[in-house]
Amino acid sequence: MIAVYPGSFDPITLGHLDVIERAGLLFERVIVAVLRNPNKVPLFTVSDRIAQITTATKHIPNVQVDSFSGLTVTYAKQKKAAVLIRGLRAVSDFELELQMAHTNKTLDENIETIFLSTSKEYSFLSSSVVKEIAKFSGPIEHLVPQNVAIALKNHFKDLAQDLAVSD
Ligand code: ADP
Questions:
Q1: Which end of the chain is flanked by fewer CB atoms within 10 Å, N or C?
Q2: pTM for the whole thing?
């Protein structure tokens, strides 16, 4: 069975990676699909995020990384996936995730959403938290894959230099 794990992954965190690793044990193939979302201004481009996820998941043989735009169920159907994976961190995620799962079910009744609860050490973790810490040069090595920690540091170093020049 093929599963699609859709999200922004801006950037991928160890929480996402934990979900991907566990999904990899459950499904024949897991497609991590980066949403091209015109409503969000991302930190990293879609191609940067694809490259980051590809590097971070290279130890998992049945993972594929892709991007998509439009409806998730349309993309899943195109990929012959019967399952959408979402992570649940806390009760606060539940309401929106349930609403999304129900909506997707009305759009395509053949596609199931399966929720994986996060490991408790990552239950507080989000891409936004990581970006906030990185912006202020805080430690992020325990929160994101190594290649992402490097990319974040480089991004904010360049930004600090640009700001210093424009001061
Ligand atoms: P989106 O913008 O679609 O919420 P995210 O990249 O923030 O995209 O999240 C993608 C999926 O990963 C969501 O199902 C989210 O609940 C889940 N997720 C986010 N952070 C974590 C984490 N720390 N541990 C496990 N799952 C997570």
A1: C
A2: 0.92
